[in-house]
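thoughts on these tokens:
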Amino acid sequence: MADYAQLFKLRLTTLVVFSAVMGYLTAGIHENGSALFLSLLVLSLGGYLVTGASNAINQIIEKDVDKLMDRTASRPLPTERMTVLEAAFLTGICAISGILLLTLYFNPLTGLLAAVSMISYGFMYTPMKRLSPIAVFIGAIPGALPPIIGYVAVTNKITHLAVLLFLIQFIWQFPHFWSIAWLKYEDYRRAGIMLLPSKEGKNKFSALMNVVYIIALIFAGFMLFAFHQLNLIGTIVLTATGLFFLMPAARLYFTLEDKDAKKLMFASFLYLPVSLLVVLFDKVV
């Protein structure tokens, strides 16, 4: 069971499912009681199955690459505690089950978006990581789909708010993953994985890109207000959270030290749930 948890990256999957649930609640506040509970249960189960399958595809393709990195060398496939055939069989079952569950319980658009997310992450982002830093851009697309998937599960359509939720989570992923890539730079370099925006790695340009994207993220928050999807108080809270996120990015630009990259990473963990909760609270009240 511990190996299956590693294969499906349960901690990362939980964050993805949380984003989908927030998207659902933002659109589905009219539901209550048992109907809401059952819908969230099905959405979470479908999300775990599809996201877990995406992560497993990533590990199957990168089995030999994972052997080269300290952070991944102990995974079940590189250590041969699990065969590729076993992982592929389980992945196929989870992928099909999750997509069918979301399609049949909610609507075909929800299942389609889930399938697009899984395919683009597993078969486009994964191989691109060893070819170009553009992999971060490609990976940010499936990474930003969960709140839309949750939203569409209720509405069966993509609205302004759904697009803005996607935009915020899309932009957020760049400083989030770049901070991790900064901290794991040597590990990634041994495996030939290129995620930092500069070919030279940990330099001023890579650090500056974090600042640029977080400023863009703050402006994306203002767009919620401009499209009447967030009130003034929510906009102030979201802006303050964005400025808090910006501070370690600015420090990293001046110092280029790992300790500031780590602070940036933790600030990214704070920003995403706060932003989703702020939007949800605005809809509830």
